[in-house]
Amino acid sequence: MLFDDLPSRQAETVSHLRGRRTPTGRRMGLRLVSPMPAPGEPPTPGPGSTPPASLPSLDALFRRYSAYVAAIAMRLVGRGDEVDDIVQDVFLAAVRGVGDVVDPEAIKGWLATVTVRTARRRLRIRRLRGLIGLESQKSYDDVAAPGASPEQRAMLSRVYAALDRVPVNQRIAWTLRYVEGQPLDRVAETCGCSLATVKRWIASAHAVVETAVNG
User: Fold this and answer.
1) Which of 110, 116, 85 is nearest to 179 (CA)?
2) Under the phi-then-psi rule, with left for phi > 0, alpha for psi from -120 to 50, and beta for the rest, what region is 90?
3) I want to staple 148 with a disulfide (CB 3.0 to 4.6 A). Which of 2, 30, 54, 144 is the partner?
């Protein structure tokens, strides 16, 4: 089974997603990105808030966290050409909502949660465009790092193409579990559902991915 051994398989899979450039021009190292904080930690953003003096400026937030946001976005959507738009949307949301983050230490977790929500919307739009024939088939060959072998590139391309065929919530749950390496309870919190539901989502997506990879 492709992902039965989660620690070693996650490292093997994610290692080939490294090397992409972020909106700040820095290299992503997906295994070097700090684990996504539990989604229950950050408060719910609210519109029209002004950040208190204790919070960093938006420019400082972007410089510090844009690579982190881009790394999460890349793992979720799998296409580098969509990452910049997601990062922009996340920091536009930060303009409206970061003032509601009382604790500066919670900002990173808040941005992670907003990134997941933004990626979910983009994936749903992609799915809708595909259903009405407006989304052309794209290759995932560029997901792999430059040093990846042709076999590794082909494997990653099959994984992400398979994820395109499963419902968005299942895709996000599977990615958070098997690419992010999040524990099941945290995945359930991020997805806003029960533990039983997220287990079903992951199992359903996992079956599709394994079939695609193993033939």
Assistant:
1) 116
2) alpha
3) 144
- Overall pTM surpassing 0.85 (yes/no): no
- How do residues 140-187 score in pLDDT, each as one tens digit? 766 677 788 888 888 888 899 899 999 999 999 999 899 888 899 888
| Residue 21 backbone phi and psi in degrees, to 5 | -90, 140
How far, rounded to the nearest angstrom, does the alpha carbon of residue 29 sit from its chain's CA centroid? 14
For residues 85, 145, 75, 181, the Cα torsion angle rounded to the nearest 10 degrees is -160
Q: How many CB atoms are closer than 10 A to CB 189? A: 18
Whole-angstrom distance, CA of residue 118 vs CA of residue 91: 11
Domains and CATH numbers, the chain: 6-214 (1.20.140.160)
